[in-house]
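Problem 12. The chain below contains 300 residues. Write out its predicted structure in token notation.
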Amino acid sequence: MDEPPWATSSNSKSVHASCNFKEFNKSASNSMIQILLVSMLFAIPGALLIAFNDSDPLLELESRSRKAAISSRDRTNIHARLEELGRRSERDYQNFRIRQFGYCCSGAALVLVLFLMAGKSPLSAFIFSAIFGAIVLIIIDRELTSQIKKHRVAIEAEFPAIIEMMTLAIAAGETPMQAMLRIADSAQGELSREFAVVIDEIRAGQPLHVALDSMGRRVKSVMIRRFVDAVITATLRGAPLIEVLSRHAVEARGNQRNRVLSAAGKAEISMMIPVVFLILPISILFALWPSLTNLNLFAS
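Solution.
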């Protein structure tokens, strides 16, 4: 027997209502999971306050983060890179690690909260927060690398003037240590600070050639390494230092001139881009526009 039409309509309504109920239950469960995750993220500071009730929570958190920074592995050779910038203490390494992981975790938590509040699935929110945290970690590492490059460029730019000052001081009768001490006291810059570190190491009991060799190892520059090797060889063998320093000063001036010429060539190429792609098309348009207008008049 055929069912009456009102029975079919009632069945379709019941099926539609059940589908709507399932969708409502699914959306409600997703929203509950999101609310629970967000509340758990905001409950972490409260849990830390309860756990560190007897002491100052900020000091306890700082001490624990420093212990975690000490126990972390230095896979990207951050110790040597910070030492090249003059940050030689263990506390500088801990501060860099705390800053790196702090920005990474806070950025990942912020992205996680934003994705959950936007209604995204928890899996995608966790994936994007992990990706964002890794990007922040890489950006801070690249920032350290760029600081090291700027440090090396500044040292190589100061090198000719510093060598000329050292040559004049030794020619006036001073010893190499006295000349470096005079440069460290009177000059300002990255290389003068490196000379100050060398003087401190000599005063601590190290020989001159050992302190200079540690400077050459610390500053990753071919020019500084060659200068240090030449000074060490001359001091150990008793060769005249003035000739060695004069030769290095002339070579440093030549290298500086070559760097300036290469920078000027790169600037010339970069200046050609707006000329070719902006000024030249406008000039051609101004030159051809009257001719095109006259041709249109003649054609009409």
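Discussion. Residues 15-151 form one domain. Students who got a different answer should revisit the alignment rule from Section 12.3.
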